[in-house]
C-alpha cells in the first residue's frame, strides 16, 4: 500500500486532508519562485518514468512532513485531555485518577446460583463510579464461566481472581491486595445492592469524607420488606466511632461498612490466621474505626434474603460459636477490652466473655495474658460461670 494512503487513512478526522495541504504548499512555492527569461533554443530532455516516480515519491514525502507537524498531532491530544479534566471536575473530583471511587468485592465459593442477581443489581446502578472484584475460592460449579460471560457483556468493569480454596480469610487478603480504589465494600454473593447504593456512597463521601474519616457505614435491609435489619442510626449523629455503635448492638449483620482501602489493607494483614473467617472484617473494622470515625447513613447499602432463625436466641447462638471457636472469640473479646471508644459496661462484658473463651480453649494464664488485669480479675467469677454453662451445654 502506498505511504500516502497509509498516512491519509490514519489522519485525525478534523485535520485537513493531506493532498489539499500539500497542494496548497506547492501552489505557494510556485508563486514565490522567481521567473527568468524563457529559453527557446534549448529544451530539457523528457524525464524518464523512473525519474517521474522518484519526483512523485518526493512530493508525497514532502506532503507527509507537513502532515506530521507537531501542532497538528498534539492539538487533538490536548483537546481530549481538556475534555477529560472537565468531566472529572464536573463530578467533583480533584484529579482524574483513580478512575473509579469504589470497589465492590465479593468472595465466592460455588455461588453461581446467586451471583447473577448481584450482577444485575450492579449493572443497574445509577452511578457507574465503581468496579466489581470477584474472588473465587476454588469453586467447582460454573462460577468462572458465568463471570467470564459477564465480562464479555462489557456493561461494568469486572476483575476476576481465582485461587485455591482457603476460606473467606484468604479471599479478604487477596481482595485488599488487588484493590486500587479509594473505598471498598464487601458484598457477599448471596446479597445484592439497591440501585442507588453507589450514588449514595459517592455523594456522601465527596461531600463529607476525606482522610479524617475511616469510611461510611450504611444499613442492611430485608429483601421482602426493604426495612432495616435491626435499628437505624440516630438522626442527630452524622459520624461515629464504630466501637461506640458496636456497643449499642450494631454489627456486620445489620450494617454495611464502606471503608478506606489503605486502612483496611493494613488492618487485615495484621489480623493473623487465628481469627475465624467471619470475624476478620469485624476485627479489622474495630481497629481502624477506634482511631477515626465513620460517616453514618440511614440508607440501604445491601439487601439480604437470609432467613434468621427465630428458634435460637442470639445469646444461645453466640455461646454455641464460643464452643466451636474459643480462641478466635477470645482474641476478639480481648481487643474489645482495649478499645478507647467504648463504654466501661461493654468492656466489663467483654472481659467476662474473654475469661469464658480462654477457659474453653484450655488456657490457664488468663490474667497474665490480659492487658487489663484488674478488669479481668473482676470478671473472673461471672466468666467462670459462663464457661461452665457453655461447656455443659455444648462441649462434648
From TrEMBL:
Q: Name one GO molecular function term.
A: hexosyltransferase activity
- Would the keyword Transferase turn up in this protein's UniProt record? yes
Q: Where is this region: Disordered?
A: 24-56
Q: Enumerate composition-biased segments (Low complexity).
A: 34-55
Fetch the Pfam families from UniProt: Glycos_transf_2 (PF00535)
Q: Which UniProt keywords apply?
A: Transferase
Entries under Gene3D superfamilies matching the protein: Spore Coat Polysaccharide Biosynthesis Protein SpsA, Chain A
Coiled-coil features, chain-numbered ranges: none
Q: Does the keyword Transferase apply?
A: yes
Q: Sorted alphabetically, which InterPro entries does this protein's record hold?
A: Glyco_trans_2-like (IPR001173), Nucleotide-diphossugar_trans (IPR029044)
Listed name of the protein? Glycosyltransferase family 2 protein
Q: What is the lineage of its organism?
A: Bacteria, Pseudomonadati, Bacteroidota, Bacteroidia, Bacteroidales
